[in-house]
Amino acid sequence: MKYLVGETAEGSAVFAVTGENAVNLTALDPNVGSDLMGVIEAGGLSDSVAAQIVDAPKVAISSITPALPVASPSAIICVGLNYTDHIKEGGYDIPEYPALFMRSKASIMAAGQPMVRPSCSETLDYEAELMLIIGKGGRHISEADALDHVFGYTVFNDGSIREYQRKTHQWTPGKNFDNTGAIGPFVVTPDEVPEGAAGLTIESRVGAEILQNSNTANMIWDVRKIIAIVSEYTTLAAGDMIAMGTPPGVGHAKKPGPRWLKPGETVEIEIEGIGICASPIVDEKDMTV
């Protein structure tokens, strides 16, 4: 199943994507809710609702304004260094344990919404990432069981203010500026992609300019391992999001460079079989309050 959470004239709803169109699942059954938490907590879409999709009224995807797949995740956990060539371009040693950090709710936004370059720095960088959404929570989850805890996969752009990321050994400031982490718009269930979402092309671009191009098979720690590692120290909850790190080609490492994102551009992150997360870049100074 491919899901899209979004807004129409009728309000917020969960949609099932069928080609270029979508079916309003919330209209078929209000228990579905206005984001994916209803489906996640129910253990998936009910058979009765799924059976109605083929003959249900459809709307064009283009008429839906994407919203966050999960409106208020209890945790947004990010893997910082998970592709060898990206680690090298950043000047880091290859770690024995993944670099992990948290993002705040204020730092994320839905695909299609503006990504904001803050007034205090021009060093806005892009990071194409696979993101997973936890379907079943737990603690001390084994690698063998880890994929049973995944509800689905989506696309993430871990927009980073590099100047502030490097002000301290902790990355929190540079990774948590308001409206810099774009998520979505589509969430696909595990049966739609290879096991663990491995072997998928992942790319970032601005127009015809290819910025990053790699494959999720190149991750050092795969989905199984990351879930097991994270659940060693915290109890994962349904709806939690985990971003799996970015491949090489980020702007700060470009030569000649750096290559920062600029207002007026639109950055696109695409993962094969999942979709495209597009974000127009705006300057905070130009935003009306």
UniProtKB/TrEMBL annotation:
This protein's UniProt keywords: Lyase, Metal-binding
GO molecular function: isomerase activity; metal ion binding; ureidoglycolate lyase activity
Database matches in InterPro entries: FAH, Fumarylacetoacetase-like_C, Fumarylacetoacetase_C_sf
EC number annotated for this UniProt entry: 4.3.2.3
Ranges for domain Fumarylacetoacetase-like C-terminal: 76-281
Keyword Metal-binding: yes
Keyword match Lyase: yes
Entry-linked Gene3D superfamilies: Fumarylacetoacetase-like, C-terminal domain
GO BP terms in the entry: carboxylic acid metabolic process
Family: Belongs to the FAH family.
Protein's name in the database: Ureidoglycolate lyase
